[in-house]
Write a sequence for this structure.
């Protein structure tokens, strides 16, 4: 089974079309509604997704790990991380899946910087990206061109090996660190990202560093 | 005895009483109880015999006792703040675990 995990928080405007377009490329779409205050869950369900609802907003990392637990339970062979805001293109899914199956890798990371299709704001490209890469290197991550990209594919081995502990956006740094720690094989593929809103800024980056630091001292 | 010393003594006795009560209620470990008892007794010694801290500070190469107290207080406050942050982080994780278990129990089945 090829399962798409879509973490969603107050995405009622776009989640329906995202689910419908995903269902053309995957077997099942799981939307993890992360404590939305709008009707994200209802719209996702009507569009054909299986829906899990967090009663409290816990963050994207928490929603993805909830999706992982579900995927392990239902015996998914491949999983896809896909954002609910419609910034990714479903056209990138099948080439990435084909690569995952045939290139002997456990995980595929999407990258905005492998081609020129994405409309990345220059502050993200030239300011936040180098800082992000430095932070990832400090916390034991891989040398990726775009670590903080929400488009990822896991095979069964990666799904059962990686368990996310960071609830917030620090999971994007945690995943490459875990891949390196467990010696999983990986590859980057170009993906298209069309921004509808700016997303994580410098404040979010500071929270990521704080969470990564605190995580080092937690049980 | 100056007014400050009298008020501080009263406050420290109240704090020591609270520590003993928490120990009686099994809400504090033996190590925690010992730490806070020693802390408040030392604080009383510092308040009543300020020169004792100056002597100790001089041994460490610090000119004034009050400077030493300030440095140690800052270090302690930052340490306690750090411990609180770590504890909060762990509580956040526990909440996430509960929320996840709850979500997985209540899967909304799809139409597929």
């Amino acid at each position: 089974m090829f399962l798409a995990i879509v973490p969603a928080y107050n995405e009622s405007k776009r989640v329906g079309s995202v689910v419908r377009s995903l269902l053309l490329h995957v077997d099942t779409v799981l939307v993890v509604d992360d404590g939305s205050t709008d009707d994200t869950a209802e719209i996702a369900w009507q569009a054909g997704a299986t829906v899990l609802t967090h009663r409290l907003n816990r963050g994207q990392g928490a929603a993805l790990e909830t999706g992982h637990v579900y995927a392990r339970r239902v015996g998914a062979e491949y999983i896809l991380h896909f954002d609910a805001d419609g910034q990714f293109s479903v056209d990138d899914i099948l080439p990435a899946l084909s690569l995952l199956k045939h290139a002997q890798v456990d995980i595929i990371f999407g990258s905005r910087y492998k081609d020129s299709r994405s409309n990345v704001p220059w502050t993200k490209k030239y300011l936040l990206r180098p800082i992000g890469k430095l932070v990832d290197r400090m916390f034991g991550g891989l040398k990726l061109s775009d670590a903080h990209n929400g488009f990822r594919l896991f095979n069964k081995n990666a799904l059962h090996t990686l368990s996310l502990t960071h609830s917030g956006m620090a999971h994007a740094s945690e995943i490459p660190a875990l891949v390196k720690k467990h010696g999983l094989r990986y590859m980057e593929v170009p993906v298209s990202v069309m921004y509808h809103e700016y997303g994580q800024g410098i404040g979010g980056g500071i929270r990521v560093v704080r969470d990564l630091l605190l995580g080092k001292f937690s049980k | 005895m100056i007014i400050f010393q009298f008020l501080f003594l009263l406050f420290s006795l109240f704090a020591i009483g609270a520590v003993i009560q928490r120990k009686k209620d099994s809400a504090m470990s033996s190590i925690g109880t010992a730490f806070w008892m020693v802390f408040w007794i030392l604080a009383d010694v510092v308040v009543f015999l300020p020169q004792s801290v100056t002597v100790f500070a001089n041994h460490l190469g610090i000119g004034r006792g009050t400077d030493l107290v300030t440095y140690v207080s800052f270090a302690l406050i930052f340490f306690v703040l750090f411990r609180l942050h770590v504890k909060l982080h762990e509580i956040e994780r526990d909440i996430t675990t509960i929320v996840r278990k709850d979500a997985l129990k209540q899967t909304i089945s799809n139409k597929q």
About this structure: The interface with chain A takes residues 82, 85-86, 89-90, 92-93, 95-96, 99-100, 102-104, 106-112 of chain B (CB under 8 Å). Residues 74 and 88 of chain B are 21 Å apart (CA to CA). Chain B has a mean pLDDT of 90. Chain B has four helices and no strands.
